[in-house]
Fold this protein.
Amino acid sequence: MTKRPMAPMLALFLMLLMTVLTPRLFALGEAGPSDSNEIKKAWPTEGAKGELFHDVAGQLRCPTCTGLSVLESDARFSQQIKEIVLEQVESGRSKDDILKYFTQRYGAWILRSPPAQGFNIVAWALPIAILVLGPPAVWFFVWRRRRTVSTIGVRPTSDILREMDTRLAELRR
Amino acid sequence: MLADLGFYLLLLCCITSIYGSGAAVLSAVWRHRRLYRSSRLAVTSSLVMAGTAAGILLYSLFQRDYSIAYIFKNSSNDLPQVYTMSAFWSSLEGSHFLWTLLLTMYSTIALWTYSKDNEHIMPYVSACLQAVLGWMFYLLISYSDPFVRMFPPQANGQGMNALLQNPYMAIHPPTLFTGYTALAIPAAYSVAALLYGDITEGWLKTTRRWSLYAWCALTAGIILGGHWAYAELGWSGYWAWDPVENSSLIPWIFCTALLHSMIVQDKLGHLKRLSLVLAFLAFFFSFFGTFITRSGVISSVHSFAESPIGPNYLAFLASMLLVVALIYGFRAPSILPPEAEKVWGVSKESALVITQFLLLTLASIVCVGTLYPIVSEAITGERTTVQAPYFNTFAPWIGLGLIVAISVGNIMRYQSNKIPGGFRLMLWSLLASLPMAAALVYYGDVLATKKAYNLGAQLVGLVLCSWSICCLSGDLLGRVKDLRWNLRLFFGRNLAYFGGFVAHIGVLIAIMGFLGNYRGMQKIATLSSGESVDFYGYNLKFDKIEVNEHDNTTLYEGLINVHRDGQDFGLVRPARSKYVTTGNLNHEIGLLSTFWHDLYITLSDFDREGGKKATFEFHVNPTVRFVWIAAFVMVFGGLLAILDRFRGAKSRDTVRIDA
Ligand code: HEM
């Protein structure tokens, strides 16, 4: 059992409780221009390096948001991660290397989709299984099968009518 | 004082709902008409009381009565009027209250506007609805009480979360909740039909109308939410596949599936049980979504136990599922089989079954992706993340399947093994669609896409969507022609068909809009005053930072002069806003929106001393407007379909145009 720091967990929980409508709110709430006079750097968006940066930063989650990558977020934490990514991109490391660096530090949690290893294979296998096994299942259960009906307690209208007729006949007698 | 009154009214609502539910069950068992009427009066009085309580909360909000904790936490003296109103649903207790109020309202409407043909199942409908209401009201007086007092009362509140101070947030939650709660009616009708033992004459007509209404509201609500995210969060997208969004999408998918299984049910009598199950699941998942987003369980399984509302929700959901599953298990066999012969093969009903498969697969994938982090953490203890890249691996394939199913499926015929004139129609459509796709590619500047894969995906998508639109239009024309171009007759008799047509066109427009995500572009630049950058044909010149005071905010606006091809587009003002009460800085995006793309600008940072230097993020987001237009088209189609008077009326004495 690894020890989890309680305070951040508690904070996260409170945030979620408060933001019913969208937990994503907090993602950017804490973001803001730096207090110092230094202006945030512009990330590269062009060229091979820019593309690699884009690619890698798009694969890493913003630790304090729900749903966003560090690329899309300007929360403080995301800024730091982007700086590290940029540094590594510039020092010529490959995408896999950089992602590995982050998974070693933060665990697979930092990746926006779970790597298909170990238990996480389930997450990928399930949709594929549904897609592959679904059509035969539909064929088997819907197309082919003849429905059997249990008619316990249910009578066809004709029976009811016949019964009513006999009753009426009895009454008339 | 008023707050206490509000609380006691909710308490009474809880009691009347429980009474109403019990009375309805007994009235069904004893066949006691007056008891049923009494249960209907119970829900009506709940509506009056809950409405009064809501009035009290609203009144107190406008009075800025900070002795109520909810008002203290969610509003402040400087809050503009609109947001004072929307503060009602800006956080847990209030939005729960709104949910319940809407559910009470729709329950009451459903119980008073029933059709004679459904008379026999109405007691069960009433029982189901009020059982849910009883539990909702119970939460409102226990864990989620909006009227909790605060001592001592404060002079000013803590203010509303700045991101919620957006016009879309004033209408998005009520719209979405309308959809969620209206789904309760089809669900209640389904369970009622099971309890009663068969589907009554008027069942389909009523259920279909309610489902369509819910579907329209959900469609509008989801897209309004996307619009809010786009305009407010500043990350330049409208859909992030985050759990909150997913949990609104899942009921929508189920509702869409329900509409289509009811079509088969109407025409042929097949898929009755599927309709029952889907109607229940659609509502179940709207509840479930509320549960996972409110209980804190999405952040981590560990935070789940800390909130009392979480386990409570779980217990309720589990028991609801169990009870309905039992009812289904015992009663489903008594639902009579259809009289119509099964001619699956190449028929429209087959296409609709495939549609069900595609929609339900999509729903499962969204569900798996949303829940996986919780489940895997519970099992392995390790935290994982499932975000957009995961969903984006699967969603396009399902989308592809749906486009093909829409076009081919709609030109098929029921109970037939061939498509009359089908190949001709498909071929002509292909011919007609090529210029259309070419125009889309040309004006949308699709060829500027860098990656080959993205380019290919867009080309395939655009050609298929255009083809699909042509197929659908061809089918429509064919039908009108069969009626000798008598439009009066066509619209008089075929509103459901025409509504479906419009809705499908809407779906296709939306998909064309989504394809724009494959070619979005971005540039980030730090500019000094007077400096400019060129981006995607635009010349963007930074003027200065302007500071403006608004109601309750200070705006730091980065003025950008936009030119393109010598044409002056004026100033765009991406900004950061600082709220007096919280001191947070939020994005106010700068948007220059055209039909083919949006120029979306955010101000990431600026120098605070002189306002002479700033970093901007520029995005070009293609075809975003398609998505907003698609929303209107889809909702319009849904509303048209509601107006149809014939669908679901089996005994209609007209010739079916649909052979
Ligand atoms: C996400 C995708 C889709 C959406 C949002 C959608 C929406 C709708 C709506 C709102 C209606 C009107 C329902 C009514 O009148 O009760 C409708 C009808 C219909 N839809 Fe879809 N649909 C979708 C996909 C499909 C697909 C893939 C098929 C393939 C077979 C299909 C076939 C039909 C048919 C046959 C009708 C009935 C039209 C008529 O009355 O003749 N739909 N659809």
Q: What stands out?
A: The domain at 47-113 of chain A is CATH 1.10.8.640 (Helicase, Ruva Protein; domain 3). Helices of chain A lie at 6-18, 25-29, 47-57, 76-90, 95-106, 121-144, 157-172. Chain A touches chain B through 72 residues (CB under 8 Å). Residues B 208, 212, 215, 256, 259-260, 263, 348, 351-352, 355, 402, 405-406, 409-410, 496-497, 499-500, 503-504, 507, 637-638, 641 surround protoporphyrin IX containing FE (CB under 6 Å).
